[in-house]
Amino acid sequence: MVLGDPVEARLIISRILADDGTLLAEWFLLSNVMAVDRSTLALWYYWRWQIESFFKLMKSAGHPLESWQQESALAIAKRLLVASMACVTVWAIAAPRT
């Protein structure tokens, strides 16, 4: 048990519904950011999750992003672009033709 002052936080429940009302996705967010409205926080979380999913995809394709030793943001961006294009090219070649 850790004693201390309580943390002020709010629960944000975000749902994505289909046109017929079917629940497609649901997130439960706990945030201590009070100065931003709940829809903006849900959108930020959505984008953050998209980034996490992209990095997971890159790692599964053999690109260990954490071990890259780049010295600048531009160098990271260039290497990430090349790695992304390599993945897209391989997936395009491997995809079944229709």
Offer a concise description of the structure.
With 98 residues, the protein is α+β, with helices and mostly antiparallel strands. Helix content is 46%, strand content 17%. The longest helix has 23 residues.
Characterization of this structure:
- The chain is an alpha+beta fold.
- It has 2 domains: 60 residues, no CATH class; 32 residues.
- It contains 2 helices and 2 strands.
- A hairpin with a 5-residue loop joins strand 1 and strand 2.
- The chain is flat and about 50 Å long.
- The termini are far apart.
- The model has no long low-confidence stretch (mean pLDDT 87).
Fill in the keyword field for this structure.
98 residues; alpha+beta; 2 domains; two-stranded antiparallel sheet; 2 helices; 2 strands; 17% strand; RNaseH-like_sf; Transposase IS4-like domain-containing protein
